[in-house]
Each structure stands twice: as C-alpha cells, then as structure tokens.
Amino acid sequence: MTKVSGRWLPSLLRQQDKSVRVQTSKRFLERFAREGERFSQGIITCDESLLYFYDPETKAESMVWKHTSSPPSKKAKVVMSAQKVMFLVCADHRGIILSHAVPTDQTINATFCQKVPYKVFVFLSFYF
C-alpha cells in the first residue's frame, strides 16, 4: 500500500450545483446582451480574505546578486505572524468599495452577513 493525498479540485459541486451555475451564467449573458456595460458595471462581488500582521519575504524575494568571492549572505529564519485578521471585502468595476474586519473566531456565513453593521449595507445600497 502507498499513502496518497487527494487531488486538489477547484470545488466539489453536485450536478444540481453545476446546473444552477450554468443557468445563472446564461441569465447574466442575456442581461449583458440587453443592457451592455451598464449591467456589468452594476455587479458587486464580495469575498473574505485572511491578512497576517507580518508576512515575511519569501526565499526568492530575499535573493541577492553576489560575487563568487563574496561571503554568503545570512538571513534570520522568521515565521508568519500568528496574529491575523479576516476581512470581508466588496468591490465593483472601479475597485474596492468596502472592507469590514470580521471579529476573531467568527465564520462568514449567512447568519454573520445578516448581522454585519447597518452602516455597511447603507454604504452598499448606494451602488444598487
């Protein structure tokens, strides 16, 4: 027996999920055909992003040119900061329109989004 890892896939969608994505994409294309750029400029997308307080440079980023007779460069080993914060970020065709810090140990789901402070949705409502 050999030990193997599962193959990485973009997502594990059921056939029903795939059908919904296809239908939604078709509706978007139909609206774009009718409304053009005005429709695409009205789209707002949101995603969450985990940001570390300190992100050390990679080995490739710290490479330097040196002569063969030069002593080797030294670099202290550093690790990524243990402190991190999750942000909910929303953007439109012009760029980021909202970033909202998510409380520690909070999962972003429908319940969380319903409790996001009112001022966030007031801000977003100007774009609809």
Descriptive overview:
It is a single chain. By secondary structure, the chain is α+β, with helices and mostly antiparallel strands. The chain has 2 domains: 13-42; 44-125, no CATH class. Helices cover 31% and strands 20% of the residues. The protein has 4 helices and 3 strands. Strand 2 (84-92) and strand 3 form a beta hairpin. The N and C termini lie far apart (57 Å).
Short structural description:
This protein is an alpha+beta fold.
**In whole angstroms, how far apart are the ends?**
57 Å
Order of helices and strands: HHEEEHH
Low-confidence segments, given as residue ranges, are 122-128
Any idea how many domains? 2
Q: Biggest β-sheet: count, sense, barrel?
A: 3 strands, antiparallel
Overall SS class: alpha+beta
Shape by Cα distribution: extended
Write the layout of secondary structure elements.
Layout (H helix, E strand, L loop, with lengths): L14 H21 L1 H5 L3 E8 L31 E9 L2 E8 L7 H6 L2 H8 L3
Antiparallel strand pairs: 1-2, 2-3
